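Form P-L/3: holo structure prediction, ligand zinc ion.
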Amino acid sequence: MTGLTSPAVSPAGQAAAAARELYRQKDYISALAGQSDVELRERIRETVALEEQAMQEWLDSGDCYIVSLAGKVHLPTCDSMKRFVDRQAAWGLNLRFPERLRGDSPDEDPIPVWPLLKTRAQIEAMPRRTACPLCKPDLAHLDKARRTVTWTYLPARSLKSKHFGTEFRLPEGTLLGPLTKITTVETIDGLNFRADFEHAEAPVTDPDTELMYQTGTRALA
Ligand SMILES: [Zn+2]
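OUTPUT (holo model):
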């Protein structure tokens, strides 16, 4: 992880990055040295507010992964990422002991780490990646380190009994799990379709829903 990556090229992300960058400037650090604890906490809270705004904007984008220093890919909800995602917690030590920012810190760098925030496309572009065993981000569908998975797509209406037990996903990668049941009920309004999957939160009821399943792998050229 590095403290330099901005969450997104957005005004909020840039403002947060600029606020963090201040703490690395000699003039600013000298100015902080002359401030009271109350004033220092006020500066910290301003920075925290900007960082929280940038973090929230990133979380709202819904396309969020964090890469740890060890190179593991985490979901932002991972317990082990909490202290990086929660900016109030990240700055907690400095808020409690603002003198840390006057150069009175046992740490080499008292400024809390800003995590390496990535989109799925960026994770996909990484030559190697390991999913965190704790939050288990589902990266299998992106896995093309050496081989790439090939997929067959079909609308839910085309599911047949031969597909029972086959593991399905939605085209954006969400795992539905093995198909367990197909039900078509004729009602006065027409056909009511329903396909049940082992790991899906809800059955698929729209027969036009596109699904995919793995049909093989091929080596990348
Ligand atoms: Zn994790």
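COMMENT: The pocket of zinc ion is lined by residues 74, 78, 80, 132, 134-135 (CB under 6 Å).
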